C-alpha cells in the first residue's frame, strides 16, 4: 500500500476540493515564461491566499519547485492533493486525469481545447474523460475552460488581470471561461464584487446544475449570475433553479437568439425555438432573465443586496430630483408592467407640505432640486401602504445633499428596499456609492439602469409568488383512451373530454352523408379533409369555409377529392373572435412544454408566443399570456371578447397533464383556439405521435 493510500483525505464535500482547495497541482508547469502551465502556476501562487499550497508538475522537473509527477508531489505533501490543473495537450489529458484519480486527487480542471468541439478525434478523447470520471469518481471541470476564481482567496485562471476583480457575494456560473471573466469584470467595475466565478467549458462532468447546487449552501454567496449557451439536462436545470432561487436570486442571460429549430410536425415545434424555450422556462423556474450583459450587472447590483417579499404585483414608489430622468425611469417601468400606484391622499398632503408647489406629487414624486426635506419626502412616499420598494434618482450634488446619508437618517432601508440612481462624474458619485454600500443600498449609474434594477426586483418577487402554488390541476373527468394516429375528429373528441368546447361536427365517408349533414348543422359550415397523416390542411387546400348550399358543398367536396380525402369532416363555424394558438409538445431537452400565442395561419410568421413547462400550475397558466405583445386583444379590445384567464389556465394545465401522462404523443396542438363572446372554442386540433410510437406517421408533413 502506498503512502498516499495510507493518508486520510480531509473531510470535504467533493466540490469543495475543486472550488475551495487547500492544495493545487499544475500539470504542465515549466520554467519557460509564457507557457500556459507557467502562467497558471504563477496565477495560483500569486493570486491565492496563504492557505493554498501549489505544486508544479513536469516530467523533466529541471527547475526548482517542480515535481516530476503527481505521485512525487503527493508524497511530499503527505496527503492527497485537492485539485489537479491540467495544462497539457488534449491527447495527454486522459492519462494525466487517470493518474490524478489514482493519486487520490479530489478534482481536476482541464484548460486545453481540442475535444468534442474539434471533431471525431476530439470527441473520442472527451469520451475517454467521461469514462475515467465515471470509473473513479474524480470531479472534472472543463475541458476547454480558463478556470475559476474566488477573489481574495483562490485564483485558478490563466487570465492575468483576474486579480483586479473585486471580492464580493455574487457567483458567476458561465458556459464559457471567457464569459465568466467578462461578466465578472463588468460586475466588479460597477462595484458588485464576485465571490466565485466559474467557466464550465465542455461540462464533461461538473455542470451548471452541480455548481448551482453547491452554491445553494454557500453562505458567502447572496446572488448568482447564470450564463447559458446550451442545455443538456433541462428538467434537472429547472429543478435546481427553482430550489436555489427560492432563497437566492438568480439572474440569467441565454445565448442563441438566432437559433431556429428545424420545422417540426406541428406549428408548436416551429414556434418554440430552443432560445425562447430556455429563457421562458428559466424565468418560470425563478430566474430573472435579461437581454444583455449590462442588464445582468444592473439586476445583480440590486438583487445581491436586497429582495422583495414574494408578491404578484408589488408597488414601486419613484422619487426623482429631476423630472426628465424621472420620466425615463417611469417609462421603462410601465413598459415592463411594473405597478407605480398613485399615492394616497394623506401621503400627498404630507408631501405638499414638504415640496414646492407645481411639482408632481402623486407618484412619481418630483422634488425639484433636492433640499433639506429630501429625506422626509422619501420617508413619506415609502409610508404609503401601496409602496413595497422605493426607487430614487438624482444627479450627484455633494455640496447640496448626501443622498446615501438622507436614506440612512430616514431609516428607510430597514423598512422597504431602496434603490438609488445617481448621475454624475465618478468622483462626485463615489461618496454616495460608498455610503450606500455601508447600508446595503444599491446604486445604479443611469435612469435606464435604475429601471432595470427595479424590474429585476419585481420580476424576482412575482415568480416566487407564482411558484408558491405547488399543486397541479388534472383534467376532470379523465380523458378517454386515444388511438394513434388520430385525425382531427378524434383529437377534438379528446378536447371534449378535457373540458374544452369544440364545434358541432359530423364525420362523413361519402357525399350522401355529407349532404344529410348539411341539413343537420347550423350554417355556415366548414368542410375539411379528414386524414390523420395531414397536419397542415390549409396549405394543401384541405379546408373550405362558409359553405351554405348543396352546390357549394359539392364544389368543396370535388376539391377535397383531388387530394384525395379518405373522409370528410363537416362542422358548424364559430362566430368571429380573436384566434389564439395553444400547444403542448415534448421538447427534446426540457420534456413537456406548453406554448401559446396569436393563432391562425400567420402564427409562425408573427412568433409572438408564451412558453411554460409541462409542470405549470393554474396560477402560472393564468399569468402566462401576459408575456404576449398581443395580450391587450384578449381584454375586450374595441368591445371585443374578454378572455376568462381561469378558463384558459384550466385548458392549458389539462393539455400539459395529458401529454405528460402519455409518452406516445409528441404534440397536441389547437390552432386556432378562438376567443368568442361565449368563451373559447377549438376550431382545429392536431395530435402528433411520438417518434418510435406504433402509429404510422409517414406523410405527416403532407
From TrEMBL:
Cross-referenced Gene3D superfamilies: ATP-grasp fold, A domain, ATP-grasp fold, B domain, NAD(P)-binding Rossmann-like Domain, Succinyl-CoA synthetase domains
N-terminal signal peptide: none
Keyword annotations: Transferase
Record flagged with keyword Transferase: yes
Domain annotation CoA-binding: ranges: 18-115
SMART domains per the UniProt record, alphabetical: CoA_binding (SM00881)
Molecular functions per Gene Ontology: ATP binding; transferase activity
Domain of life of the organism encoding this protein: Bacteria
Classification via SUPFAM superfamilies: Glutathione synthetase ATP-binding domain-like, NAD(P)-binding Rossmann-fold domains, Succinyl-CoA synthetase domains
InterPro entries: ATP_grasp_subdomain_1, CoA-bd, NAD(P)-bd_dom_sf, Succ_CoA_lig_flav_dom, Succinyl-CoA_synth-like
Protein name listed in UniProt: Acetyltransferase
Organism this protein belongs to: Rhodococcus rhodochrous J45
